[in-house]
């Protein structure tokens, strides 16, 4: 890890971006092309109405992708965290449960789709003209859903096992095979739209087989039958860790459903009818997805660069990386904008020919709906940037702002005013508002970024501890303002044993290269909206690394002898240790406010809000890493109200219990 940290903190930014971003771009673009190839050959081999049918079926595929990414990304995160904690058996269970859930859900979803396909197509805006083609295509696609879903779930897990090239190769081979088989089934075997569907599921089956073959090749774990037994606790954690990926994909499903229904409704009132708008906008969105995939790939690949240098307080490198990423993304967006505005007829012609009305609406859609696509070069990287530096709330807002917060309401409002054109106007309106929001967040953040020199040398804490004949560990979890930290200090002093609290910060800074200030601001805190962020990380982010390093350090300290450890999920980390006394300190709000004002110099009028905020962050952090409720008395041996007895008396009681329990 040290070598990678040195590279992230010292290597040229441009070289780092190329190293990390290019694989991301390739994977995302290949995935986007996968969705487009069918439509290209269908447009030429059948007709443009057949493309409209595939656009109506497409949300069903996106729902399947949402579930498979949720399980794949969730299992990958669980896998990485447990390996970091040196818990291979639990890591194995996480992978096994992720795969098992994918199998179960994919089969159930396949059956539901086959049984209720006509009703589902109606939800996604299918018209009578498109219905027969959509049913022919959808039935075959539904049969292949289990292969696609399980293969995609495995793809994420394979990357987490340290084999990103294998994962990318299996996906690329599937995409290439789809390109080869499409013309064979459509033009040689004359299977029409059904041929395109057959080509797709055969390609997905190949990726599925390749990824299944990897199960026996895992580098970090050995999957056995026991790993595939469903454990509800593990399954819940996998789902929770992957929920952001699910939300991201499902937001797109809602957008397509809303668009198709509005296009169908207002299209009938125009000269274009319903089918042309549904067909054209579906194609335009998929073409624009190529642009977005490139931008996402550039920014997502740069996350380790942002995260490490921000944490190490190398703000000059953070600003340089941000400037480079935004510059490249905007340049690519400008090129796309020029193409969309100047040759929309040629772009739509890639997907086959159509009549005069079809071409007219296609040109109108490119030039209107994608009018402000240049702003994507700012808005998309901004959300990923804030995720990388630990600003989860801002990242979640930016990630969901265009699709859910702005685009769908804009479509509903503007279509009611301008009819069919209102749906198209919603595109630039959403892009514009999302850009303004991203720009405001970026301006605020960059003002806080100040250039600093190389990180200061950190002297390792060498607190002299009394050697214990039989070590006993006191862990103290505490509400903010309850006096828990001071109680820990009193207990350590009375027993003559080391206290570990702020001492962790210097030690972790020494191990990771992250600054003490950054660690203090990030550890033991997790924002509520963190779970809504896009799952762009390949591996762990800084907060996960901090938790793993602290876990390792807490276990090392516990082996040395008696001590007091304040916070940091120590009660959970040492739950298997028999010589641990787990304490939780709480108090009423009135006394918490009094202490916060007196000792932390908070404004009295704002103290209660700040206390609730910090306690919520601590509770989220504890829940995320332990799957337990932070303030649940069952997690602790002793729960004490520091107001009822006073902090000195509470400390005395803890000391008496320790002395009775063991010779410390």
The total strand number stands at 5
Q: Order of strands across the widest beta sheet?
A: 2-3-1-4-5
Helix content, binned percent: over 70%
Question: Mean pLDDT, nearest integer?
Answer: 87
Textual characterization of the structure:
α2 runs parallel beside α8, α11 (275-301) crosses α16 and α13 (315-342) runs antiparallel to α16. The protein contains 27 helices and five strands. 73% of the residues lie in helices and 3% in strands. It starts with a helix and ends with a helix. It folds into three domains: 1-26 and 268-454, no CATH class; 46-242, no CATH class; 473-661, P-loop containing nucleotide triphosphate hydrolases (Rossmann fold). Strands 2-3-1-4-5 form a five-stranded parallel beta sheet, sandwiched between helices. The model is unreliable at 1-6 and 451-469 (pLDDT under 50). By secondary structure, it is mainly α. The radius of gyration is 28 Å and the shape is elongated.
What characteristics describe this protein?
664 residues; Rossmann fold; five-stranded parallel sheet; 3 domains; elongated; 73% helix; mainly alpha; single chain
Compile the SSE list and pairings.
Elements lengths: L1 H9 L2 H33 L2 H37 L3 H28 L1 H7 L4 H16 L1 H16 L3 H25 L3 H22 L18 H36 L7 H27 L1 H9 L3 H28 L1 H6 L6 H14 L6 H13 L3 H27 L1 H29 L24 E6 L5 H12 L3 E2 L2 H10 L3 H7 L19 H19 L2 E4 L3 H4 L6 E7 L2 H11 L4 H23 L11 E4 H4 L1 H15 L3
Parallel strand pairs: 1-3, 1-4, 2-3, 4-5
Helix pairs in contact: 2-3, 2-8, 2-9, 2-11, 3-4, 3-6, 3-7, 3-10, 3-11, 4-6, 4-7, 4-10, 6-9, 7-8, 7-9, 8-9, 10-11, 10-17, 11-13, 11-15, 11-16, 12-13, 12-16, 13-16, 16-17, 16-18, 17-18, 19-27, 20-22, 24-25
């Amino acid at each position: 890890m040290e070598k990678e940290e040195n590279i992230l903190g010292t290597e040229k930014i441009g070289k780092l971006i190329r190293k990390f971003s290019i694989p991301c771009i390739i994977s995302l673009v290949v995935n986007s092309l996968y969705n487009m190839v069918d439509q290209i050959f269908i447009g030429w081999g059948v007709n443009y109405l057949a493309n409209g049918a595939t656009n109506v079926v497409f949300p069903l595929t996106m729902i399947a992708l949402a579930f498979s990414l949720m399980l794949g990304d969730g299992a990958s995160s669980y896998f990485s965290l447990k390996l970091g904690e040196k818990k291979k058996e639990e890591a194995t269970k996480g992978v096994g449960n992720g795969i098992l859930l994918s199998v179960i859900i994919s089969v159930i979803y396949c059956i539901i789709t086959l049984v209720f396909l006509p009703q589902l197509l109606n939800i996604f805006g299918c018209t009578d003209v498109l219905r027969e083609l959509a049913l022919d295509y959808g039935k075959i696609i539904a049969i292949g859903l289990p292969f696609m879903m399980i293969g995609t779930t495995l793809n994420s897990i394979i990357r987490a096992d340290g084999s990103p090239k294998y994962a990318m190769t299996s996906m690329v081979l599937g995409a290439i095979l789809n390109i080869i088989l499409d013309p064979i089934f459509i033009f040689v075997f004359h299977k029409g739209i059904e041929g395109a569907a057959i080509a797709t599921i055969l390609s997905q089956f190949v990726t599925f087989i390749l990824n299944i073959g990897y199960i026996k090749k895992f580098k970090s774990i050995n999957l056995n039958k026991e790993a595939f037994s469903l454990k509800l606790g593990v399954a819940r954690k996998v789902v929770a860790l992957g929920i952001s990926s699910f939300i991201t994909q499902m937001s797109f499903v809602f957008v397509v459903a809303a668009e198709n229904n509005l296009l169908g409704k207002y299209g009938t009132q125009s000269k274009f009818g319903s089918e042309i708008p549904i067909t054209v906008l579906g194609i335009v969105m998929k073409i624009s997805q190529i642009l977005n995939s490139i931008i996402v790939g550039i920014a997502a690949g740069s996350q380790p660069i942002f995260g490490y240098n921000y944490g190490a307080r190398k703000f000059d490198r953070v600003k340089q990386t941000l400037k480079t990423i935004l510059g490249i993304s905007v340049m690519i967006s400008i090129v796309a904008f020029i193409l969309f505005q100047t040759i929309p007829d040629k772009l739509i012609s890639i997907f086959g020919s159509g009549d005069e009305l079809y071409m007219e609406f296609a040109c109108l859609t490119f030039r209107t709906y994608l009018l402000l696509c240049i702003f994507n070069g700012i808005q998309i990287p901004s959300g990923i940037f804030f995720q990388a530096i630990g600003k989860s709330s801002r990242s979640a807002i930016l990630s969901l702002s265009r699709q859910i917060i702005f685009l769908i309401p804009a479509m509903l409002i503007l279509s009611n005013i301008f009819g069919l054109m209102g749906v198209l106007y919603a595109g630039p309106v959403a892009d514009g508002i999302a850009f303004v929001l991203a720009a405001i967040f970026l301006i605020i953040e960059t003002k806080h970024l100040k250039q600093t020199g190389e990180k200061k040398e950190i002297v390792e804490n060498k607190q002299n501890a009394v050697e214990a004949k039989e070590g006993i560990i006191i862990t103290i979890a505490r509400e903010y303002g309850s006096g828990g930290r001071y109680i820990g200090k009193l207990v350590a002093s009375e027993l003559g044993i080391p206290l570990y609290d702020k001492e962790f910060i210097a030690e972790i800074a020494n191990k990771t290269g992250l600054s003490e200030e950054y660690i203090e601001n990030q550890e033991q805190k997790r924002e509520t909206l963190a779970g809504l962020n896009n799952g762009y990380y390949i591996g762990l982010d800084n907060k996960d690394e901090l938790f793993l390093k602290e876990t390792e350090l807490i276990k090392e300290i516990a082996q040395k002898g008696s001590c007091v450890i304040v916070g940091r999920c120590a009660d959970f980390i040492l739950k298997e240790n028999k010589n641990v006394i787990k304490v939780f300190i709480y108090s009423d709000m009135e006394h918490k406010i009094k202490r916060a004002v007196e000792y932390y110099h908070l404004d009295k009028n704002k103290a209660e809000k700040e206390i609730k905020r910090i306690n919520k962050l601590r509770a989220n952090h504890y829940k995320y890493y332990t799957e337990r409720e932070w303030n649940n008395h069952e997690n602790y041996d002793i729960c004490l109200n520091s107001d009822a007895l006073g902090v000195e008396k509470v400390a005395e009681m803890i000391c008496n219990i320790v002395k009775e329990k063991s010779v410390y």
